[in-house]
Amino acid sequence: LSDSRQLKVTTEALAFQHLDHDVTQPRVALFRDAIVEAIAAEVGAQGSRTAFQGLKIALNYAGGAFIYVRIRYAARLKILASSWATANREAVQHAEGEGSGEPGKSGRPSGSDNVKSKLLGDTERQPLRQERQNLSVPKTFPEMFRFNAAVMGFGEHAWMMEVLRSFDAIVRNVSTSYRLQEECDVL
Questions:
Q1: What does DSSP assign to residue 18?
Q2: pLDDT of 95-142, one tens digit each?
Q3: Which residues neighbour 90 within 8 Å (Cβ) at sequence distance 6 or greater?
Q4: Which CA distances in Å does 169 have to 18, 107, 113, 115, 148?
Q5: Could you please report the per-residue DSSP string of 34-65?
């Protein structure tokens, strides 16, 4: 308690471990009073009023920090969940579009566009267009992950695909500390 910076770091770490619990002011008061009463029953007359008051202050501080962290980081966790869902939704839609066999889903211009370009004398741009058509720009998280792995020289390593498969569970459980730890241990 004498090192305020360390107290803050430790309290924030505990608060992050309790993000999956709905910590509210009434619950903090109930928990604080129950702990103080249980300790008072154990120590009896040996406990001083000052010690119990100090314990109440420490528990109020921790409870307030839990509430603060939950409120402060709730919006960020929602953004993370929303972004992750969007990235995965696009991956599912992209995979469905490739396998559908529907014309126009490949992202390449139709034959009529190529004919029109040649008829209009746009032959100088044709190599550039062809080069752009052959580029495969990653549009989903798994595609970008694979692209980055390949660029870093890890594209052929099986363990990179294990990391990719683990990302979903890790991101989905970021606010549940024990599950996040479990997923990281599995990885």
A1: T
A2: 555 544 444 444 444 444 444 444 444 545 555 555 555 567 787 888
A3: 139, 140
A4: 19, 31, 44, 48, 20
A5: HHHHHHHHHHGGGS-HHHHHHHHHHHHHHHHH
